[in-house]
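Newbie here. three chains, one complex. Structure please?
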Amino acid sequence: MIVADLSYRELEHRLAGPGIRLRTGPVVSRIQSRLPAVVRGISLHYAEYPTEEDESFADFHVRVGRPRNVRRWLQPQAHFFVDGNLPFAPLPLDQAFPMLEWGLNWCVSAHCHQYLIFHGAVVEKSGRALILPAPPGSGKSTLCAGLVNRGWRLLSDELTLIDIASCSVVPLARPVSLKNASIDVIRAFAPGAAIGPAVHDTAKGSVAHMRAPSDSVRRGMETARPGWIVLPRYQAGVAAELTPLSKARGLMQMADNAFNYSAHGRRGFEFLVRFVDQCGCYEFAYGDLEEAGAVFDQLAARA
Amino acid sequence: MSATPALLVTAALQRPQELVAYTLRQWEDLVHQARRANVLSRIAQSLGELRLLTRVPPAPRAHLEAALVMAQAQTEAVEREVAFLRKALAAIDVDLVLLKGAAYLIAGLPAARGRVFSDVDILVPFAKLAEVEAALMLHGWTTTHQNAYDQRYYRQWMHELPPLRHNVRMTVLDVHHAILPLTARLKPDSTKLFAASRPIGDKGRLRVLCPADMVLHSATHLFHNDDLSQGLRDLADLDSLLRHFGSERGFWEDLPRRAAELDLARPLYYGLRYASRYMGTPVPSDTRRRADVGRPPRIAVRLMDALYDRALRPVAPSDAGSLTPLSRHALYVRAHWLRMPPLLLAWHLGVKALRREEVTAQ
Amino acid sequence: MLWRAVPDDALAWREWDGEVVVFNRQTGSTHLLGELAGEVLRRLMAADRGATVETLAAGLTADPSEGDDAGWTAAIAEVLSEFARLGLAQPDTS
């Protein structure tokens, strides 16, 4: 069953009660919320995602809600609960859906240590993963959104999960978060893409989410082989240029952008060496999404 | 005594072999409760030692394996910290007594296996405190709690320096000169603790408390109301220590006597009470009887029982977000981040403030 | 002054085109070493009884007849001091 099989009313009812068990790749999250923004967001972004039956195993129990005391009237706030705990400070109520997204990312990055988890976007073509590790503000989400609207499959826009045993990249396809100017850029670049309402004044400015392409959702359990590690840098007016990066530097970039690399100790290092060894490493400067897409298509074709 | 509350987690800790028969729903409840109580890795460790991990369904097994990764990482981090600590204090004429998790680990005790670690705790003589602090700061540790009020609070009233954080490694070190605050009613004499402490193999000036003292120190955590969310983990520690040392000659006979000597009769009473109640720790009746001398008035015991039941009880779905003041105070959760810069994480996730310290549900 | 690298079993490393990435179990840190630093570390690891800046310099100089090249010595000394800071090597003070 998928979320769209439920009527809006049923979805609302379930979320307010026992919750829905939403599958996103290898992760199942039991989500509960009475907040309209969250119900709307789930209805829009997760329509095609599977919901598991009650006999399944939910990896996380999350709830986005409001405090049950006087504060709820004075200062409308949303709280994110995981297993009854509050790992974050509350946010204004209108940021409830982004909060769900951030919270779900937190759950994975904080607990899924069976994987090596890196901060970065990852997309796939021809069975190979293109990893875009990047510090905040490097434009990776915009590039990611652009690529998945030009034939690349979305694995994740935020967390790259790598399975050590199989040396493969594991998908976690969820809505792509867009910030500030990127929102309009992608609206123009991909008029057919479903982008939710923008939420303003967050810590990152204005934020909106783009629904993951259906193909990415349908193939949500399909892993990818090591392909490329590319450090993107957006600069207006710049011609697209792919410059080879040494593997040693590629490895350091991955380590620098990792959530739990250190936790895996020596085993993590030895694995990362094996992984990077199989990747082409590059730096990438670009000023135009269409041009960027063409460059990566060429890269994929050469593979 | 009333019936032991049926806790999924304590059952799993005591009888891990039964877990292979669990349904997915039972696994789900267990993983969530055990993680919340910080004993998931301990359960995973037990299953691993019994070679039963492969019989756990894949979905919950991933969580067990993830917990083991973290526990192993923390083990290595503690080993590293202790090595750095020894180097930093090598030039000072001081005996370092490791406390709690670090002690269990370096001394090779079963209590360390699969355990979640956070800070490193050490005990040094009060007279050496200034020298130790100076040496640590020279080697890159800096005090936290910069404001004058906090500094005085720690130094004057507590039993430790304000926690020290290492500039590069970001690890936290707690330097104690006593095991309870100076303001506490109970006054265990540190000199006696040092006198009875034992060296650790070939580790130079590193020492651990003697078995009875280690047990009593562990029990004082249960008595100290502040951090009851670690209650189950501390109980698991205590249970492990009691079972391990219980086989040592004279241990059970010695325990009540030593408790009286250190003014820790009350913690011993509670320690034995809750270890046997929740963990099924086998305690000889003679020791129980002699430990009864530390029992407080009946009403205090009932209150403590209720507090404990509440604190160790799993959070039911409907409870989340509407906890009563009592358990709100009791459920103090600290997230542990191993070598992950919290600011980086917070920025990445676009959330203004990632609270790692005390969080309370409203 | 004699320098020693950390024990063999504490390090794991990989070289790609002259650059070396190395993991040090003692610190849990991962480092990127350029050509010179990588070579110094490799020689230090191979020297069972440690090595001095001079012996390292002598081993690296292309032309042995050049004698003591102050440039090499200074560069290696800097590398070693960085190694000390990172925990990859220590001067032997025994």
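Moderator note: Chain A is about 35% helix and 30% strand. Chain A touches chain C at residues 246-249, 251-252, 255, 261-262, 265-266, 269-270, 273, 277 (CB under 8 Å). Thread marked as resolved.
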